[in-house]
Design a protein that fits this description.
Strand order of the largest sheet of chain C: 10-11-12-7-13-14
Structural class of chain A: mainly alpha
Chains: A mainly alpha, B alpha/beta, C alpha/beta
Shape of chain A: globular
Structural class of chain C: alpha/beta
Radius of gyration of chain C: 28 Å
Mean pLDDT of chain A: 89
Mean pLDDT of chain C: 87
Number of strands of chain C: 14
Helix content of chain A: over 70%
Strand order of the largest sheet of chain A: 1-2
CATH topology of the largest domain in chain C: ABC transporter involved in vitamin B12 uptake, BtuC
Helix content of chain C: 55-70%
Number of helices of chain A: 14
CATH architecture of the largest domain in chain C: Orthogonal Bundle
Strand content of chain A: under 5%
Largest interface: B-C, 53 and 53 residues
Oligomer: heterotrimer
Chain lengths: 306, 379, 596
């Protein structure tokens, strides 16, 4: 049934975008730095999955932990190169360093993997699954399940472990955290590793159904930035909510004439629900949220402190 | 001391210009810079251009020595212009293999006019040969030709009456869409559904469903390679059951590599020529040459860029000594290339035929289902 | 002249630029000239970006869109209506200005990242319109055959002439930007960047400053766009895409946010850099990215700052004794001694209520401050003292109640309006511009109500207005006993001195009422006594004083009356002795701090 399929599609895409946005927000919270290369890291994750699959012909679910580990390692390198040298400098410098890394990643991927779109292996096999007479995409389900597992794991890590508490303390007040003996630099580096791993996971998950191309990065960073800002700058549930909103506008809104047949019968439904209009409506909603509730959906009320 | 500081600054400033100043002009029969998009969203097509051009320049006809410099033009017009200016400043240029990105070609036209060098490209955008510029030579059939072929085939093969037109919001997509609509109108058909997709759109299901719900009996696509593959995948898994005639995106080997042959069953598409179908001995030879050089399959962009470059080298082999002579040769002569025979129609359109390829569901190598030649008299 | 001083560095860069120009014009190929022309166009856009991003300190992501608007207007007018580059200039600048103005109203008040996203979304919408409105804009294919640059009918040939034209305009634009930031206006922006609330508290209309900056940015961008489209001869949506904005941002950061000369240098560098690596074919952008990374790590505050630092290390500055500026006496604009305006209290608070979330910070506070008196506002932490002062100075609106000043209701006014009416204040955390001297920090307050573009652009090299303001500021620094440190940057001053500079700045607005927020914090015993003595002497003759403190012995020395708050209510008011002995006051403080 088309409705179910569309919903599952939207969930899968939203879940993947959530991972991207979460990575973005983690770095933001820990360092107040905006990571402009988050989207390119997603692309990198996709290519890492593609590259691994060339040597290890196994299902994607087996490759995924490898992708996470490799990306985490690259995340440490990334923090050493783009963040730590500029730690006590004006924040704009980190914009530029992450932009530069993004350029290197995008063109590096083009040089190493070629400009063609490539597909990563499916997590648990492609094709459809029969559930009570309805056929649903296997990969979509696997993506949703994997993303949920990763998000829950992140939540447990941050909320339920000593390690996670230290990470949060570092994010909240680095000076105070250092004062109580938390190794702040190590915590920040680990945060980068986590964020990059999440980006890599998103890339690996998306790259089977939707392929990966070196130029994908710009699109993903735009979505992450939007998701985090309308969700509430720095809010973790906000990032997930924002990502969900974007996925809804990507999949559900253009399909409204199908989901609600009455809408499909209206004369102007062609234009009103086209993909282009969907983008415009989403943009208008974002502006509305910014104007009416500038702190975002989940953000704290913004107060000026004298 | 202050003067040494000033001296240092001056030297640095000189270095700015110095690094990009002319390399010694080489004594060669043909200097053909290759300025194509190797990065950015058209890099697949640009790489095809590069491969085809370099293959030709690397094995020129007897008696011709070819030198060439490959430079990336990215996506913006001004980068392309910079690349051309640089190429021209490094010594006499015989011809230039130019990026196929419409806006970049348009930006290059005035520069080509100023320096009087011919541009050899495979851009399909209509406007490119409508500027009245005598230095543009397009070796790929224009959109009016390939889209007419696409529509004609759809009518002949599937007797379409209510097509849905799905196109990309890029230059390629919009230009093709315009040509499709014109062709349909000529045959008295109006699309029942049209949708413009951004390249970043991942899920094709909403578009597919809406097209079907609008009563479409066929789908005409004008999408880039990746989105074409996504669309065909979605259509296959939705068991759409409607005939699909796609654009050149479906002819690119990189697109086909992403699909299972079953997903391609019954899918047809237009393109200038189909090297992998190896219809002629020349094509078979070219195919082998290309595969040996690049370990990959060529698409029609590659083979036709190869042809265009070869036509230049052929002109040089027959005595054209400089850019002016080459331009004259390109404007007046006809040339039998690997993919087809090329002759200028006076505006710089050299290629006047297209093919429709179809996949049978068992192989990734398509068969040519229809040859189409532009009705010159009707122009 | 000191080799490492900003003036000297500007001169060095100017000379370097002239050398490059001579080379490019005399010996350069068409290619050299073309790349430098493109660099000039980006320089113009980036100099414009300096206003909103550098001076106003706001991350706007709309600069590329404004350039695109200017480009589209100029291109469409050229190709559809035959209107040349020069004749279409009013429109190529006009449309971006109009859009900027419309957008500014709702969007400029947003905080950093929300503002950035709002401007980004607006840019994306403009891009979508350009792609979809095929009939007008040519859609994604754009329109070719735009006429070349022309001035009064004369077609400017590409190469030398275009280069000279573009860079002449860049020079003018750079000079204007430099002049803009040079004097009191630049100082006002500097304070606004550091702390916009503090800027408002000395009467700076921050919203207006931000608007001016945003409009100037859009105008420069539109001009750059007009040049772009006639130089490239084609208009396509590519000019509206994100990479153009990213390049502009990169140039602005690498050049140094407020250093015009640096931005021009950075523009040349960023545009030239990829060209140098062309020989690497498809790897060339990797090299560009790597170099960019190295540059930003080596010079995170900007190229010019880094260059200055190198020069300082090579040639340490001879620290000359700064010439003593003669203080210019200021007669306060009003007589505010005791017994003045006796018929009504100067400040009157009636039933002020304010809550934050579930917490009732103020629950019906009413009291008066008589003209010429010194009133102390005390209460334990969290009793609402600072909230009350924030309401009086206009930072918060009360949920209920009225604030009257000299009889007039000031409750709905914004902070800068209240400041201009004569209420000045200090803050718990001293808000000064560390990079500026103490003298300049106070001088900003002397002109804040009279900042104007006309004045900014009419001063010569020797800024007479600034000199007078500095002289007047000297007088106020003298009053607070920090005249000796006038020339030192505030970042280098000890905490106690910074406090006094901040008070001097507040006094420099000639207020009728001065609000001091916990001035004794961080001061040692002798500093406190000195402060109290000084305040008593200054204030008694000039204005009324409301001091918030929880350190009662400090207040003892100089206040006339006390008002005590607890849990957002007035629990006692009267003379010092009786309030100190009040049982409720003692109970409020019990277990929470120092009890006298």
């Amino acid at each position: 049934m088309i409705t179910l399929q569309l919903l599952i599609d939207a969930l899968a895409i939203g879940a993947a975008y959530s991972l991207v946005a979460l990575g973005f927000v983690l770095i933001l919270n820990a360092t107040s730095a905006v990571n402009f290369s988050q989207g390119d890291l997603v692309m990198l994750g996709g290519f890492v999955a593609v590259a691994l699959a060339a040597y290890l012909p196994v299902p994607g679910i087996v490759l995924l932990p490898l992708v996470l580990v490799i990306m985490a390692g690259l995340g440490l390198v990334f923090s050493a190169v783009a963040y730590f040298p500029l730690r006590r400098r004006p924040p704009e410098a980190v914009f530029i360093s992450t932009i530069a890394v993004g350029i290197i990643l995008q063109n590096g991927a083009n040089a190493v993997f070629g400009p063609e779109p490539q597909a990563a292996p499916a997590l648990l096999g492609s094709g459809e699954v029969e559930l009570g007479g309805l056929s649903i995409g296997r990969q979509s389900l696997a993506v949703i399940a994997t993303a949920i597992v990763l998000i829950l794991a992140l939540r447990w890590l941050l909320g339920g472990t000593q390690f996670g508490r230290r990470l949060r303390a570092t994010a909240q007040d680095p000076d105070m955290a250092a004062a109580v003996g938390i190794p702040v630099s190590a915590m920040i580096a680990i945060t980068f590793a986590l964020a990059t791993a999440l980006a890599g996971a998103a890339g690996a998950l998306l790259a089977h159904n939707f392929f990966v191309t070196p130029t994908d990065g710009t699109n993903y960073i735009l979505k992450a930035y939007i998701a985090v800002t309308i969700g509430g700058w720095g809010s973790i549930p906000g990032a997930v909510a924002g990502a969900g909103l974007i996925a809804i506008f990507e999949v559900i809104y253009p399909a409204l004439p199908i989901l609600v047949p009455a809408l499909g019968r209206v004369d102007w439904s062609g234009i009103a629900f086209s993909q282009t209009t969907s983008t415009i409506v989403l943009d208008a909603i974002i502006l509305l949220i910014l104007l009416v509730r500038p702190q975002g959906l989940f953000g704290e009320a913004v107060r000026q402190r004298p | 001391m202050r003067w040494t500081k000033l001296g240092a600054v001056s030297l640095a400033a000189l270095a700015v210009g110095g690094i990009d100043c002319a390399r010694p002009a080489l004594a060669a029969d043909a200097n053909v810079p290759v300025l194509v998009p190797l990065t950015g969203f058209l890099s697949v097509e640009g790489t095809s251009q590069r491969n085809g051009a370099v293959l030709a320049l690397g094995s020129p006809p007897a008696g011709v020595k070819a030198t060439f410099d490959v430079s990336d033009t990215g996506v913006s017009p001004e980068v392309a212009v910079n690349a051309l200016e640089r190429a021209v400043s490094q010594g006499p240029v015989t011809a230039v293999v130019a990026s196929m990105l419409g806006a970049q070609v348009l930006a290059l036209l005035p520069v080509a006019l100023e320096h009087k060098v011919p541009l050899i490209t495979i851009s399909g955008t209509a406007a490119v040969t409508q500027q009245g510029n005598p230095y543009i030579f397009r070796f790929f059939p224009g959109d009016q030709v390939v889209k007419e072929a696409q529509v004609l085939f759809a009518i002949k093969q599937y007797k379409i009456k209510h097509p849905a037109v799905i196109y990309q919001t890029t230059a390629y997509g919009q230009s093709g869409h315009g040509a499709i609509d014109e062709s349909l109108k000529k045959h008295g058909i109006e699309p029942v559904y049209e949708e413009a997709l951004d390249v970043s759109i991942k899920d094709m299901t909403p578009t597919l469903s809406k097209a079907k719900a609008a009563g479409a009996d066929s789908l005409l696509l004008q999408l880039h390679g990746g989105p074409t593959a996504l669309f065909l995948k979605a259509a296959a898994s939705a068991n759409l059951g409607l005939p699909i005639v796609a654009g050149s995106g479906v002819s690119q080997p990189s697109t086909v590599a992403l699909l299972d042959p079953l997903e391609l069953k019954g899918v047809c598409g237009e393109t200038g020529s189909s090297p992998v179908s190896a219809e002629t001995p020349e094509m078979t030879r070219f195919l082998a040459q290309y595969r040996k050089a690049y370990s990959a399959d060529p698409d029609s962009f590659a083979v036709q860029q190869y042809d265009g470059t070869m036509m230049v080298l052929d002109a040089v082999a027959h005595g054209a000594k400089d850019a002016a002579a080459v331009t004259a040769a390109l404007s007046t002569n006809s040339y039998k290339g690997v993919a087809m025979t090329y002759k200028s129609d006076g505006h710089g359109d050299m290629a006047h035929s297209a093919v429709i390829i179809c996949y049978d569901g068992q192989s990734r190598i398509p068969k040519v289902a229809m040859h189409y030649t532009e009705d010159q008299a009707a122009k | 002249m000191n080799l490492a001083s900003p003036r000297s560095v500007n001169l060095q860069l100017l000379i370097g630029g002239i050398v490059v120009a001579i080379y490019a014009l005399g010996f350069g190929t068409g290619y050299t000239q073309r790349v430098l022309s493109v660099a000039g166009i980006y320089a113009l856009m980036a100099i414009g970006y300096q206003f909103i991003f550098g001076y106003a300190g706001a991350i706007a992501l709309s600069q590329g869109a404004f350039m695109g608007l200017g480009a589209y207007v100029s291109g469409i007018l050229s190709v559809r209506y035959g209107i040349g580059f020069d004749a279409s200039l009013p429109f190529s600048l006009g449309l971006p200005l109009l859009v900027a103005f419309i957008v500014a109203v709702p969007v400029l008040r947003l905080q950093t990242h929300y503002f950035a996203l709002a401007t980004l979304i607006i840019s994306q919408i403009i891009l979508l319109i350009a792609i979809q409105w095929v009939d007008m804009t040519g859609g994604a294919n754009g329109i070719g055959g735009i006429h070349p640059l022309s001035l009064l009918g004369w077609n400017v040939p590409p190469g030398q002439a275009t280069l000279i034209l573009i860079w002449s305009v860049v020079a003018l634009g750079a000079a204007a930007a430099w002049q803009f930031g040079r004097g009191s206006l630049g100082q006002a922006y500097a304070l606004m960047r550091v702390n916009s609330v503090a800027a408002a508290s000395i009467g700076i209309d921050t919203a207006r400053l931000r608007l001016i900056a945003f409009l100037l940015s859009s105008a420069y961008a539109g001009l750059a766009g007009a040049f772009y489209v006639h130089a490239i001869r084609v208009i396509s949506p590519d000019v509206l895409e994100l990479p153009v904005m990213v390049t502009c941002l990169t140039i602005a950061v690498v050049g140094g946010r407020t250093r015009t000369a640096g931005i021009v240098t950075a523009a040349v560098l960023i545009i030239e850099l990829p060209e140098w690596f062309r020989f690497m074919q498809k790897y060339y952008l990797i090299a560009y990215g790597a170099i960019l990374l190295l540059v930003v790590i080596a010079a995170p505050e900007g190229l010019v700052e880094a260059w200055q630092r190198i020069l300082t290390r090579l040639r340490p500055a001879r620290v000359a004794a700064p010439s003593r500026i003669a203080p210019i006496a200021v007669s306060w604009g009003h007589a505010a001694g005791r017994g003045d305006v006796a018929e009504s209290p100067l400040l009157s608070l009636t039933e002020i209520r304010r809550h934050f979330g579930g917490v009732r910070a103020l629950d019906g506070v009413s009291f008066d401050v008589a003209a010429g008196e010194i009133l102390g506002l005390i209460g334990p932490n969290g009793s609402g003292k600072t909230t009350l002062v924030n309401i009086v100075s206009g930072i918060y609106r009360p949920d209920a109640g009225r604030v009257r000043f000299g009889g007039a209701d000031i409750t709905p006014l914004s902070p800068y309006e209240i400041a201009r009416l004569g209420i000045a204040r200090t803050f718990q955390t001293v808000a000064l511009v560390d990079a500026m001297s103490a003298l300049d920090n106070v001088a900003v307050a002397r002109g804040s109500g009279r900042l104007s573009l006309r004045q900014t652009f009419s001063v010569g090299i020797d800024d007479a207005h600034l000199a007078r303001r500095r002289g007047e500021a000297m007088g106020f620094l003298d009053l607070m006993g920090v005249a000796d440190d006038a020339a030192r940057p505030c970042g280098a001053l000890a905490y106690g001195l910074r406090r006094r500079v901040e008070v001097a700045r507040a006094l420099a607005t000639e207020p009728r009422l001065l609000l001091l927020d916990e001035p004794a914090t961080g001061l040692n015993q002798s500093e406190q006594e000195d402060f109290a003595r000084r305040m008593a002497a200054i204030v008694r003759a000039r204005c009324t004083l409301l001091v918030i403190e929880h350190n009662i012995p400090f207040l003892n020395a100089f206040v006339d009356r006390l008002v005590c708050l607890d849990y957002g209510r007035v629990i006692a008011q009267g003379d010092v002795a009786s309030v100190q002995r009040d049982a409720r006051v003692i109970e409020a403080y019990l277990g929470r701090g120092v009890v006298p």
